[in-house]
Design a protein that fits this description.
The protein has about 475 residues and is of the alpha+beta class. The chain has a 6-stranded antiparallel beta barrel with strand order 2-9-13-11-10-14. The protein has a 4-stranded antiparallel β-sheet with strand order 6-5-3-8, with no helix packed on it.
Length: about 475
């Protein structure tokens, strides 16, 4: 019985030893495999250094200002004053149409311009309008005072001398006597024919006497009676009219008392400008200082409205517009340094800076991009509008930071990891990275330090043994 128990203990001991041996072999084999794989790896000793993070893009060069100039009317080209490559100033005349080929309205505008300019000069320099306004105000005031004075007595009996009343009364008596005598004379021909010359003469004398009597009575009544309602109404109306004219004269004087009215001057200038605009239809002028970059037409050609004539570009500043993806836009700031190259210019790098960043994105082919404008700081004659440029925007420039090559980083279970050699064994280390360039990334956390040996191309043999991984 005891022998049997001892036999079982020996058996289990043997099994344990075998299992331990198998595990040891597996571990040794794994270590050896890891060492063997590590022996074939490319490595690099980690160290601190500088890191310049960039965002790349492509864009097209454009001038500071560009304008395509076209003809505004029909006509025949009479002169062309510039060629491609010429520098021009603001408002410089580039080409003109022959006057004989223009419409009548444009030809007559020259005469209208002379009149409008003369009126403007007189308005600015002449004092006639101001003096006339002052005179009109004085006359209006005098008339208003006179009408008001007369109106004071409009509803009262008219004051006059007794001699005037006696004379008016006597005039009535005399006129009445004349009527009576004329009536008696006319009555003598009562039976006579209407064609009787003496009767007709008597009738005429009677009518004249009656008219004189009526006028004498009216004159007497005028001095004896107060004005009637009609006369009072007329007087009130005259006051209102005189006051309105006085107010108009006062406003005109107020407007001109300190010289020409600015509004009148502006209106006169507007008339001159309108006529000049009509005349300018017959020519093309540069809207700004620049260079002639394209031209069409020859002297003698017949042109129509909207026919292309010239293109002017302001090459004093050159810009490049690029589209930046939304994932990078928050790293782009005004003032950041830009390096750029051009497909058409070999072995030359130019410098620039960001001058404008759009605050709203545009969707294109399902992606959201933001427009960023870059100024070329050192353009030369080789840089021309329309060229394609490759730009690298420096978004950060770090000094003395721990960096690792991007090709050494792997993603394992959603985390960034690298592999380093410790005692000849590949060891996984979780890290967190910050700024990145095309080749390097900044290490901001993780069990890494300068001097560690980093595996640049971790083998799938040991990375699979360490929970797997895929390139970052």
């Amino acid at each position: 019985m005891k022998k049997s128990t001892k036999s079982k203990v020996i058996t289990w001991s043997v099994i344990g030893v075998v299992l331990l041996g198998i595990i040891a072999v597996i571990v040794v084999n794994n270590i050896n495999a890891s060492k063997a794989a590590a022996a074939t790896m490319q490595t690099q000793v980690l160290e601190k250094g500088d890191l310049t993070a960039i965002v790349g893009a492509t864009g097209t060069v454009r001038a500071n200002q560009s304008a395509s100039l076209v003809w505004q009317t029909n006509g025949r080209i009479e002169s062309i004053n510039v060629v491609i490559g010429d520098k021009v100033k603001t408002d410089e005349e580039l080409a003109t149409l022959a006057q004989s080929s223009l419409s009548q309205s444009i030809i007559l505008a020259q005469s209208d311009l002379v009149t409008a300019q003369r009126n403007l000069d007189e308005l600015i320099n002449s004092d006639t309008a101001r003096a006339q306004a002052q005179l009109n105000l004085a006359n209006a005031q005098q008339n208003y005072d006179k009408v008001r004075w007369n109106a004071v007595y409009a509803d009262k009996p008219r004051e006059t001398s007794q001699n005037t009343l006696d004379s008016a009364s006597a005039a009535v008596v005399i006129a009445q006597d004349r009527v009576d005598r004329a009536q008696k004379e006319y009555d003598k021909y009562g039976e006579s024919s209407e064609t009787d010359l003496l009767k007709a003469n008597a009738l005429s004398n009677l009518a004249a006497a009656k008219k004189a009597l009526a006028e004498a009575k009216l004159s007497l009544n005028y001095y004896n009676d107060a004005p009637d309602t009609k006369e009072v109404s007329i007087s009130s109306g005259e006051i209102a009219v005189a006051k309105a004219k006085l107010d108009d004269a006062q406003r005109e004087w107020d407007r001109l008392m300190d010289g020409p009215d600015p509004a009148d001057i502006e209106a006169a200038k507007a008339r001159v400008a309108a006529i000049e605009a009509t005349l300018n239809l017959a020519k093309i002028s540069s809207p700004f200082a620049g260079v002639i970059t394209d031209a069409a037409g020859m002297v003698g050609n017949i042109v129509n409205p909207n026919a292309f004539a010239f293109r002017v570009d302001d090459l004093s500043q050159m810009f490049i517009d690029v589209e930046i993806p939304e994932v990078d836009i928050n790293r782009i700031k005004v003032g950041q340094v830009v390096a750029m190259t051009f497909d058409a210019i070999n072995a030359a790098e130019y410098q620039g800076k960001i001058v404008e960043v759009a605050r709203i994105g545009a969707i294109s082919a399902g992606a959201v991009n933001f427009k960023v404008t870059i100024e070329v700081l050192n353009p030369d004659e080789q840089v021309m509008p329309g060229m394609t440029a490759a730009v690298n925007i420096v978004v950060s420039d770090l000094k003395d930071v721990l960096t690792i090559p991007n090709r050494a980083v792997r993603l394992v279970e959603g985390k960034r990891v690298v592999y380093i050699l410790k005692n000849g064994v590949a060891t996984k280390v979780e890290i967190e990275i910050g700024s990145s360039s095309d080749t390097l990334s900044e290490v901001i956390s993780g069990d890494l330090k300068a001097g560690d040996v980093l595996i640049l191309n971790p083998s799938t043999d040991f990375s699979s043994m360490m929970s797997g991984g895929r390139p970052f």
